[in-house]
Amino acid sequence: MMREALDQWDFVLAAYAVGVFGIVATTGWAWLAMRRAERRRDRTRDRTRGR
Question: Which long-range contacts (CB under 8 A, 24 or more apart) does 36-43 make?
Answer without folding.
Answer: none
